[in-house]
Design a protein that fits this description.
This is Kinesin-like protein. This protein has 737 residues and is α+β, with helices and mostly antiparallel strands. The protein folds into 4 domains: 376 residues, Kinesin motor domain (Kinesin, 3-Layer(aba) Sandwich); 33 residues, no CATH class; 151 residues, Methane Monooxygenase Hydroxylase, Chain G, domain 1 (Up-down Bundle), CATH 1.20.58; 112 residues, no CATH class. It is built from 21 helices and 19 strands. The longest helix is centred in the last third of the chain and has 74 residues. The protein is flat, with a radius of gyration of 52 Å. It starts with a helix and ends with a helix.
Length: 737
């Protein structure tokens, strides 16, 4: 067989394969695209290790073959590795050819209710984004697919009614983000029994032309996360998924309506990379780890699905839940979907291992089979909808007659000219519009009243707080004010509760409005109009409520700031009072410890108990003009048992028993040295005990008495020492008890 016959046979097999894929009876279509060397690779004099043969075979040359001959473990390694795919494109292939050979045939099934997916796989810098998105001058698969889709919709618009909705998302660090929304929030995946895996809360925009979708693509690509690495100056750091949902309805409706819907997904995956090759650090390294994690899970799913087909064992586990990417592509890989995988590779010798891994995954994906089923929803029309169906048919007939009369110049009478159907429709429309406006006006009035009550409550709370904060106010006056404020608050809270109940009842009545709209059997245009009026009023009410909540939140924040400042002042005052009491207590403790400060042993205590004070000397007391020299002396010492018990823990340095020391008598006896110049009576002596009889025998009289100031001073010191002894006993009891 010559090369020409071989190519013809291959093309025939490929065409049969595509026909089988259209019918849902074949595997995933896998194509390989090899890009040319870029300028940086050319400057480094790198050579190519990838060869494409006959648009089907990929030959990978091992650059380490010569060095492996000396390695025992790698000696038998092949110099060339060959892979066969459905398509293999070299660097000369154009964007148009890529689209026509891989994705164009999918669109015929999309408008018939079959799901389809096209995704690009490969390492960083291999050309995935260029294949899917392209450039302004040379667009990729996404834009060309949208052009062809709307072309087919226009061709079939006479038989079916098409509705196209578009969503655009990215998976960045295992978080799903909406690229068409200004809100930067993470979305969740949900399992739908009819639609499969769906993204909850994603923005779906209805588009009527390719230009609208391309404008959305530009917005989404600007929001997509891109960063520069050494492998790629504009490296995509996330997986981008463009989903186009198509709903197909027949124009000729009967008792049973057939609705077909399909989903076209186009995925631009982030590139697998190695940190050593890209020199990523910090956040870029974390991004690379998340990318590799999701791509590894994708590879595991491909491998598991391939083994299911090879071993004919459907019980093998497929780890779809390993990442958000594989959950989103669950139907595309092994479910109800026609899938095309475009594996992008680089011919450079430096990316040999990445290219080898990509070819291995693509080779496994060839074996995956999908089960494609047309998505059809049968809807039974109620008899009440027949009026709408008849009206639509009449409008269609009017349009056809108008077109015919324009072409032939014949004026045909309108169909059912005397019908009052339009009048009934207009009356129902006006009635519903008034009901909706009245309902939402009531909601606005109640909202306004509720807001006024809330502001009054906040104002009264602020006045109460100010009254409590001002220290100059009289307590009785403040109490009266607070009681008055509380009475006002009680009535306001009751009003607020009433308004809240009324508002909740009005919210519940919205369902009644929707029921009335549904039962009115309006035409499609009138129904769309009345629903737009309803949604506009609803949005207006919700926007006012949001503004009120923001304003209330600001007021609450200010009130909390005032409370925080007041509490900080209170804490400051509290700390000052605590410090003052600490100082007072500390001073009291120091005074209590002064007595014991210098008493280190029992001898000191005994000396202190014997009134071992300094002797009063050189005191001159003038009495009757004559000086008196006196000196205070101790009474004769005598051994007595100590009346003071000293605890050993309090004075651990005691060396002798306290009973060995002399203590003073219970009554101190004072000795007074009498000199020649004393004026005291001779009968008065410090060693004698005065008695009434003695005074009488000595002819004592008050006129002859002269006070002894030294004796008085000594008595004061004696009383002082007695108080100290009493204080010592109290402190010992307090300390040891």
């Amino acid at each position: 067989m010559n090369n020409k016959d071989y190519l013809n046979d291959f093309n025939l097999q490929r065409n049969n394969y595509i026909d089988q894929l259209k019918n849902g009876q074949n595997n995933i279509l896998v194509a390989i695209r090899c890009r040319p060397l870029n300028q940086r690779e050319i400057e480094k004099s790198e050579y190519e290790v990838v060869r494409i043969l006959d648009e089907r075979v990929v030959v990978l040359i091992d650059p380490y073959y010569e060095s492996n001959q000396n390695d025992v473990l790698r000696k038998n390694r092949n110099k060339e590795m060959q892979f066969a795919f459905d398509y293999a494109f070299d660097e000369t292939i154009s964007q148009v050819e890529i689209y026509e050979k891989t994705s164009n045939f999918l669109l015929d099934g999309v408008i018939e209710g079959f799901n389809a997916t096209v995704f690009a796989y490969g390492a960083t810098g291999a050309g995935k984004t260029y294949t899917m998105v392209g450039s302004p001058d040379n667009p990729g698969i996404m834009s060309r697919t949208m052009n062809q889709l709307y072309y087919l919709i226009q061709q079939n618009s006479n038989q079916n009614h098409f509705v196209v909705r578009v969503s655009y998302l990215e998976i960045y660090n295992e978080n799903i983000k909406d690229l068409l929304s200004i809100e930067d929030k993470n979305l969740d995946l949900r399992e739908d029994p009819s639609q499969g895996v769906v993204v909850a809360g994603i923005t779906e925009i209805e588009c009527s032309s390719t230009q609208e979708i391309m404008a959305l693509l530009k917005v989404g690509n600007r929001n997509r996360t891109k960063e520069a690495t050494e492998a790629n100056e504009a490296s995509s750091r996330s997986h981008a998924v463009l989903q186009v949902q198509v709903e197909i309805k027949q124009l000729e409706q009967g008792p049973q309506e057939e609705v077909k819907y399909s989903k076209l997904s186009m995925v631009d995956l982030a590139g697998s990379e190695r940190a050593a090759n890209t020199s990523n650090r910090g956040l870029r390294m974390i991004e690379g780890a998340k990318i590799n994690q999701s791509l590894l899970c994708l590879g595991n799913c491909i491998q598991a699905l391939s083994q299911i087909q090879e071993k004919k064992n459907s019980n093998l586990f497929v780890p779809y839940r390993g990442s958000k990417l594989t959950r989103l592509l669950k139907d595309s890989l092994g479910g109800n979907c026609r899938t095309v995988m475009i594996a992008n590779v680089s011919p450079s010798v430096l990316t040999f291992e990445d290219t080898y891994n990509t070819l291995n995954y693509a080779n496994r994906a060839k074996n995956i089979k999908t089960n494609v089923v047309r998505n059809i929803l049968n809807v039974e029309n109620h008899l009440n909808n027949y009026a709408q169906i008849i009206q639509n048919l009449r409008q269609e007939n009017e349009q056809l007659k108008r077109q015919l009369s324009d072409k032939q110049g014949i004026n045909l009478p309108p169909i059912n000219q005397g019908s009052d159907y339009e009048q009934i429709q207009n009356e129902s429309l006006n009635k519903l519009e008034k009901i909706i406006q009245k309902h939402f006006q009531l909601e606005l009035d109640i909202q306004k009243s509720q807001q006024d009550v809330d502001f009054q409550i906040d104002k009264i709370n602020g006045l109460i707080f100010q009254s409590l904060q001002d220290p100059s106010n009289d307590k009785d006056i403040v109490k009266d004010k607070i009681d008055s404020f509380k009475q006002n608050l009680k009535s306001l809270m009751q009003q607020k509760e009433d308004y809240t109940n009324k508002y909740i009842n009005l919210i519940d009545k919205r369902n009644d409005l929707l029921t009335q709209i549904k039962q009115a059997n309006l035409s499609l245009s009138n129904n769309n109009y009345i629903m737009s009026v309803y949604k506009q009023a609803q949005v207006q009410t919700e926007s006012i409520e949001i503004q009120y909540r923001e304003k209330k939140s600001d007021n609450q924040s200010k009130h909390k700031e005032q409370q925080v400042q007041f509490l900080q002042q209170q804490i400051k005052l509290r700390d000052g009072v605590i410090n003052d009491w600490k100082n007072i207590i500390q001073e009291g403790k120091l005074k209590n410890k002064i007595i014991y400060k210098n008493l280190k042993n029992v001898e000191d205590v005994a000396d202190f108990a014997r009134l071992n004070h300094s002797t009063i000397t050189n005191q001159s007391i003038i009495q009757n003009g004559s000086p008196v020299n006196t000196s205070l002396q101790h009474s004769p010492k005598r051994r007595v048992q100590s009346q003071i018990s000293v605890h050993p823990k309090m004075y651990p340095n005691q060396q002798q028993k306290i009973s060995q020391y002399h203590l003073p008598t219970r009554k101190n006896q004072l000795s007074l040295q009498q000199g020649s110049d004393t004026n005291l009576p001779d009968s008065y002596s410090a060693h004698s005990k005065s008695s009434k009889g003695n005074r009488q025998n000595q002819n004592y009289s008050p006129a002859n008495f002269q006070p002894n100031y030294n004796l008085l001073k000594a008595r004061q010191q004696q009383l002082y020492l007695q108080r100290n002894q009493k204080f010592l006993k109290q402190q010992e009891k307090k300390y040891f008890n």
